[in-house]
Model the fold of this input.
Amino acid sequence: MVSVGRNAAWIAFDDEHRLRPASLRKHEDRLSLVTGDLVIARDLDGERAVVDSREPRTFALERTSAGGRTKTMAANIDAVAIVAAFDRPALHLAMIDELLAFAEIHSLRAFLLLTKPDLAGPEARARITGLYGALGYPVFELNPKAGVGIAEVEGLLAGHQTLLIGQSGVGKSSLFGALGGGGGTIGAVSKTGQGRQTTTSARLQRFGQGFLIDSPGVGEFELQDVPWREVVDGFIEFRELAPTCRFRDCTHRTEPGCSVRAAVEGGVISPGRYGSYLAIVARGET
Done:
């Protein structure tokens, strides 16, 4: 399933990589589909198809809005690839930390792909790649337009169902195109099934046994109203330390005998990462 409209979708059959429009067979209950869904579809004339049913989802990435409504953003993914630029736009480590925490909370494998390496000095680049690499996250520097690092990323994505996340201007669309998801990919689908090129809707590119979904932006993945205990789980360097705090319900902010804060003060945990944790927890209390 590539993209979904009110009564139509763009799909690719198992034995082909091209996309084709597909109408949704009418049901008593409206068939709810999202990017990444696997469906049972019938070929009509070699160009069009009809979706009869949806296969059970192995995973549904959901988000609850401030109004309490639940929205499913993608289905059947097992990994998140975070795209950020060293500069232009400025590198926001707090955003990276939040997206990594989002992946951890949802039990998704996470990769970090850093673009525009020519805009940062070697020391700055080594500091960033070292910070996240030391935490166990695969980190790659790449230049999608020049094809630098693309082969390595392809190997990283092989066999995974991955969601590509990054803010505007970091080269996410260029990367998606370099990985094969270029001009033929349809963005949104209208009520009549007519595709239009856009970045406001998730797009999908198949990779053998896996696929890559190009998400529209980072706003959908902010951690809102998440209990502090879950936020702790999102910061992997906190996990072993948290149970050793003096108090079982330690929030790792002001309590005495906090092992996490001691690790920050001792240089074991990055102060910037700790600051990202504090900001997310504080937001959940407002």
